[in-house]
Task: structure prediction
Amino acid sequence: MEGEIDSTFQTQQRDMFTSGIVAEIGVNAYAVWSVIKCYADFMTGEAYPGMREIGNKIGLSQPTVSRAVDILKDAHMLRIVDSAKFKRKGQTYVARERLAVRLGGKVMCFVVVDYVPANLRDQLKRINQLLKTGEEDKETWAEVEIVPGDGFVWDDKSKTLKSSIKASSLPTSSSTESDEYHRQLGAELFARIAPNLAKRLPKK
Result:
């Protein structure tokens, strides 16, 4: 018997579910986002599927796909490339990864990066390294977008996260659903982008 199996895998971030992102955007938008990732160019992250093609892959109508694309753009999980390398008839998409940064169960902000398979793992590793060492790397941080959580505002001029919430109200321990690695990463990122709040946190 002869046959062929597509053995390629697409990893899925657990935080998409634990942080409530999927519930926020809905299952249709999540399915559209997943399909677009399947079409992503390995080196650039650019994807070119038409809305009809996307809909055929997941059993959705073209208008439903169009609404899902708008939801994904508003949620910072998809961007439309205005000047793709090669001019195409349809839209060019780049899916985005949105990682929640928490202290305890409270989402302080989201870190958003483009889904580019060739360098995504190294990019996240580099961001983690910068957070641990405090090293400045404008090129790496230029590729990162910070989306503030409820009650927070991102000050682009000072590159810090600001809040009207009292520091004493901020949780200091990790939630049961978050492992130690993500708790530590979140605390390090919070200390970097919101030092004005981090310094006022009550000690355990």
